[in-house]
Amino acid sequence: MAMTEEFRTKLENAFLKDFPVADREQAMGFVESTGLDPFRGQVKFLSRNAKNQRTNQWETRIVIVTGLDGHRARAAATGRYMADDQLPVVEYDDNGIPTRATVRVRVWDERTSQWSYIPASVRWSEYAERRTENKKVNGYNRKIPVGDGSKPEHYQSNWGKMPEVMLCKCAEVSALRRAFPDDLGGIYIEEEMGGVADSPVHENPFEAPSKYTCKRCKVEVTPAQASKTIREFDAHLCGKCEGEAKIKRDKDKPEEVKKATEPEPDPEPKKPEPPQEVVEPEDVPKDVKPVEPPKEQQELPKDPNVALDAQGTEAEARTISYIRGIVAEWKIKPRRAAFKNALSQQGIDLDSDELTADQIKQAHDMLDTWIGCHARKGGDQ
Fold first, then answer.
1. How many helices (H) and strands (E) does the chain have?
2. What's the burial of 100, exposed, middle or buried (CB within 10 Å: 0-12/13-18/19+)?
3. How far, in Å, CA of 77 to CA of 260, rounded?
């Protein structure tokens, strides 16, 4: 909704005068974008004290929450919302504490031109706020939950007084967000948030502080001079105190731990073995040549790119088979026809079985030339 200057002044004086300027602009932008009216209780601006971990100081920050009525009003403004005529379904445990609540809302579906139901189910353990009490644990004050959660008095305020109403609120808001994601996405009620608003404030979690204070000698040091110990000293220490802490930890180590953590000495390098002398037989005359096997027993090379005159008819048959196989694998038929036409101009018929050795060699050379030229063009063979 469009906000006039008069409305902004009333809103600031009524709800936002105690907040910083940035929080005021955030709240006014939220009201203007959502159209919720804070004067009708549809949106609330809560003040929470949070500790800024970067400056280590407490600050008052704004937390914007809405009510169930605000969600219903936003849904009704679309003209497609109707409340369900059935009561919520609530499940209980043996102690009378609700464990789950299921609520559905009716939405007009323009695609089917009929009402459809959008359900949502929430668990008690995910939303109910437990009461806590301060106790000292290992010398530090900690918030410990009261009881085991089996009785209503173990929960805060309305969660203990009217648990069914609180859980059904969360279920209905969840169903409304599912039904109207464009209008209610990212808008939550106070009952859903729990203790999120009490979390520490991080203005810039990636920005490191400019100085540290040594927890032992209380001297301010820069981040380059500070180091964080990793054992019993969980604090920032300067370089000198860190060295003293390391010496103390090393002295307190048991002897078995020291031996286990010490690096093992490097093994001595092995001496290279002397090279063995090759003894040639003396009874073999030097002028005796090795006996070559018969020609038919010599193994022919598999590569057809060897000289054809040294291989005989079997090598010729292998070469012509190799040429025919390469040409048959070409995917483009005009290329196969062009290659055979070029062979025909040289008097070579690739499909003939009566080719001479010279013709086979000439065909093999032409094939290499064609493949090389085509590879430089980057085409498909």
1. 13, 12
2. middle
3. 72
Contact 200, 50 (CB under 8 A): yes
Q: What's the CA angle centered on 151, arms 170 and 123, to 5 degrees? A: 25
Tell me how many degrees the CA angle 19-20-23 measures, rounded to the nearest 5.
Answer: 80
Looking at the DSSP assignment, which residues form a beta bridge with residue 137?
140
Residue 358 to residue 309: CA distance in whole angstroms = 9
Please give the DSSP secondary-structure letter assigned to residue 355: -
Which is it for the CA torsion 335, 338, 339, 340, positive or negative? positive
Taken as a whole, the chain contains a residue count of 381
Helix (H) or strand (E) holding 337: helix 333-345
Angle at 99 between CA 95 and CA 86, to 5 degrees: 115
Quote the tokens at residue 52: 């800024």
Which pTM does this prediction carry?
Answer: 0.48
Which DSSP helix (H) or strand (E) runs through 227?
strand 226-228
What token pair was written down for 22? 């940035």
From CA 131, how far away is CA 145, in angstroms rounded? 6
Tokens of 284: 């073999």
Close Cβ partners of 318 (under 8 Å, ≥ 6 residues apart): 300, 304, 311
Structure-block tokens of residue 169: 């609120």
Q: Where are the alpha helices (DSSP H) in 114-263?
A: 124-127, 157-161, 163-179, 181-184, 190-193, 239-252, 255-261
Q: What tokens does 380 get?
A: 């498909």
pLDDT in tens, the chain (381 residues): 677 888 888 888 888 888 888 888 888 888 888 888 888 888 888 877 777 777 777 777 788 888 888 888 889 988 999 988 889 999 999 888 999 999 999 999 888 899 999 999 999 988 888 888 888 777 677 888 888 888 888 888 888 899 999 999 999 999 999 999 888 888 888 888 764 444 433 333 334 455 667 777 777 766 555 554 433 344 566 777 777 777 776 776 666 555 555 566 666 666 667 666 555 555 545 554 554 544 444 443 444 444 444 445 777 788 888 888 877 777 667 777 888 888 888 888 877 777 788 888 888 888 877 776 655 455 544
Joined tokens for residue 369: 């030339």
| Domain ranges within the chain, ordered by starting residue | 212-259, 301-377
Alpha carbon distance 203, 192 (integer Å): 24
Q: Which residues pair with 213 in a beta bridge?
A: 220
